[in-house]
Amino acid sequence: MIRRRNRGFTLAELTIVIVIAAILAAIAIPQLNLRQIEATWFHEQVRSGVRYAQRTAVAQRRCIFVSVSANQLELFYDNNGDCLISATRVRELATNQDFILGAPTGVTVSAAPNPFSFNGLGQPSAGATVSVSGKTVTVNAETGYVQ
What we know:
34% of the residues lie in helices and 26% in strands. The protein is built from one helix and eight strands. It has one helix at residues 11-60; strands at 64-69, 72-78, 85-89, 100-102, 109-112, 116-118, 128-132, 135-139.
């Protein structure tokens, strides 16, 4: 009687292993990039927030302050037209809620100078740089251009 030795895997076994590996890759790979994606998305939100501050300052003809802490960006009105920061937050028109951008977990945000403002003509108080986990939003000191 001749015995056959089983060598290798059957086609069904290989197919099952490939399907399981593909499912695990589809779940695991996006999780590896999630922090980078969130940092990029928050960077774009910060840039939009700074532009919103400038547009609101022009529309309302008053100073709007951009204040940055370690994990959020907030917009404040001036204090009685004297271009001093107040505790009154800017409210979003669409939602009628305070304009606060909270950073995702693991994303840090900082600004220099902090806070900085836009006057009623949209001019910044100084050139400013907001850093979001290594990426920067720059406000040109002369033109107020936000890039």
